[in-house]
């Protein structure tokens, strides 16, 4: 799989509705994963979206999630996602993006089995890097 660059939008509980709307707009395939599917079966987030992805037939990709915290700020809720399975390429991007950045999630294996990291670069842009199938 080639590396992919796309927006990642967080919502305050209505990511499912937003993604269903965007699917009506752009068409395509919608995949939704809840927090319950990844071990958080109890609590207020269980049926909320931990990760959703819309892949439209024209090549557009949109990723979304419900934020697990109360710090949702519309207008400041979009990140950039870099994902794929080329470990060396994506780690190279991570090293450069995280240099001088505030790292909120170190690049390491996550509960869904991929290697993932998140940082806010020196310009205030939040980046998420996900390396599929690497298991760290």
From TrEMBL:
Q: Which domain of life is it from?
A: Bacteria
Q: Name one Pfam family in it.
A: Glyoxalase
* Name under which the protein is recorded: VOC family protein
Residue spans crossing the bilayer: none
Alphabetical list of InterPro entries matching this protein = Glyas_Bleomycin-R_OHBP_Dase, Glyas_Fos-R_dOase_dom, PhnB-like
Glyoxalase/fosfomycin resistance/dioxygenase domain segment(s): 5-129
Q: Which CDD domains match?
A: PhnB_like
Biological source species: Streptomyces osmaniensis
User: What are the top taxonomic ranks of the organism?
Assistant: Bacteria, Bacillati, Actinomycetota, Actinomycetes, Kitasatosporales
